[in-house]
Design goal:
Helix content is 25%, strand content 22%. By secondary structure, the protein is an alpha/beta fold. It has one domain: 4-Layer Sandwich (Metallo-beta-lactamase, Chain A), CATH 3.60.15. Helix 4 crosses helix 6.
């Protein structure tokens, strides 16, 4: 069986959340959900997640998995909220422990924070097979943007996270802690060795002027037209381009709050003695 895919584009973070399911009344996975966050007030809300929940309810789907392609730096995850409301297991790549260890130090997190991935219900190994109802799926390790990046292959569809963008946008940056342009090149080639007709679903789109947001392409289109990694681009050429480009990029607006929430599977830090949870802003650390 091939998956049915329904996408939700969040214009404030340029994030695409997916519901992947076998059939109405069946089972689904939710990928890369968004928790709304106002950086001016520090308030969160669940408007984006509520749209996903309404679709799941209307289709009478049982949530089996809440999947994260990586610990995002550009939006907060609604995984914890969705699990509380709909059930399912929150899962991410096993290398999330590397990301947790790195940022535990950067944020000087509380002594009780465990950098062992235990905040998640399941940690995927590279190549691990799993099921979404009657659909067969596979987790693919694609490090480079972060050490823990995972793509998820479901039938003829692959959800690539930030590894690739649409062909006219290119590839993810590699200058976050633990990023590696050499590894990203190898991860991209791993994906582009899949059959040409394989459908690729992006986690974000930052469209050039004059183009509406889009998030689905194919292996063939990426190999022919991706501005950073089309066929013929060498690893050395890619790494040189990526290094130059990354040096010009600002940090994402939400990286500091997002990472603190996302390494906890979408849950806020423990409340302090006054009942309020706090996020830290490290000065001159990134």
């Amino acid at each position: 069986m091939q998956p049915q895919v329904h996408a939700f584009f969040d214009p404030s973070t340029h994030t695409v959340t997916y519901v992947v399911f076998d059939h109405p009344g069946g089972h689904c996975a939710i990928l890369d959900s968004v928790l709304d966050y106002d950086p001016k007030s520090g308030r969160t809300s669940t408007a984006a997640a509520s749209e996903v929940m309404a679709f799941v309810t209307a289709q009478q789907l049982t949530v089996q998995w809440i999947l994260e392609t990586h610990a995002h730096a550009d939006h907060l995850s609604a995984a914890h909220h969705l699990r509380e409301a709909l059930g399912g297991k929150i899962a991410i790549g096993a290398a999330i422990t590397k990301v947790q260890n790195t940022f535990k130090g950067i944020f000087n997190l509380e002594p009780g924070f465990r950098a062992d991935g235990s905040q998640f219900d399941h940690l995927f190994a590279d190549g691990e097979a799993f099921a979404i109802g009657t659909l067969q799926a596979r987790a693919l390790s694609v490090p480079g943007h972060t050490p823990a990046c995972m793509a998820f292959q479901v039938g003829n569809a692959v959800f690539v996270g930030d590894t690739l963008f649409m062909p006219d946008v290119g590839t993810a940056r590699c200058d976050f802690p633990g990023g590696d342009a050499h590894m990203l090149y190898q991860s991209v080639r791993k994906l582009l060795c899949l059959p040409p007709e394989t459908r690729l679903f992006m986690c974000h789109d930052y469209p050039p002027a004059g183009r509406e947001p889009a998030w689905e392409t194919t292996v063939a289109e990426q190999r022919e037209r991706n501005i950073h990694v089309h066929d013929g681009i060498t690893e050395a050429g890619f790494v040189a381009m990526r290094t130059r480009r990354d040096a010009t990029l600002d940090m994402p607006v939400l990286i500091l709050p997002a990472v603190q929430i996302n390494i906890r599977a979408g849950e806020p830090p423990p409340a302090e003695s006054n009942g309020i949870s706090y996020l830290k802003i490290p000065l001159n650390a990134l």
